Structures are given as structure tokens and as C-alpha cells.
Please model this.
Amino acid sequence: MWAGLVLASALTAGGALAQGLPEPLPALPGDPVRGRAIVEDRQTGLCLLCHSGPFPDVPFQGDLGPDLTGVGARLDPAELRLRMVDSRAINGDTIMPPYFSRDGLNRVGDRWTGETILDAQQIEDVIAFLATLTQEESE
Model:
């Protein structure tokens, strides 16, 4: 329910959704160290199944989603938060799963029914980490 309220409040905020979700989800600020661990963990965040980035110690990074290198320079925390909560708000045809929404999902396994992929604190931790990725890779 919390996830739906986050998107619903953003939708009624007069265009705020197009910019992002400005308010953090939990009361505690995100921790970039925990966020990096979530991004790199193929059992928790699953981020590197689709994305690649500045993670030299992680083999077999994905190429379906955008490279995360420099994402913190391209998107602010509100924009990152919206993409993490439910990227369908920006692109209805996205293949990125909604990490903090239970609405409008199809073919959800029994174990995941009614659950979000990440909890609110994990979302903020990932955002805190992604916000640190401000350097574009040198060519």
C-alpha cells in the first residue's frame, strides 16, 4: 500500500512525477555503502543483470539497461527515486521492474505476491549510492 501512496501523491503534486519523487521513502537517510552492496548483489538488487557500470570486480554485467557510470551526474535523487520505485511512470514499455510498487503487475510468483522487490530503506540506500556515481568513464 505504501508504494501506491507514494506514486498517487506524486501524481497529484502537479507535475512532480515528471521530475521525480522528491521526498525520501523512510525516515532514515540512504547509506551509499549498503546501496552499493545491493546493486552488486545478484540475489537482492539484481541491478547488474541488466545494467553495467563502474564495478570492475563484478563479472558478467548486463547490457539491456543504461550504463550506470555517471548516473549521479545525469539524474538527481528525486529522478533516481522515481525510476527505482516504478520506472513505468516514465516509460510504460520499460523492462525495468518496479522495485517498490505492487500495482499493475502480471505473472508474479506466489512467493512475491503482495511484496515489493526492495523495501523503502533499501531503495534509499541504492539512491544514495547511485548519486555518488558522478564521474563519466574516461575514453
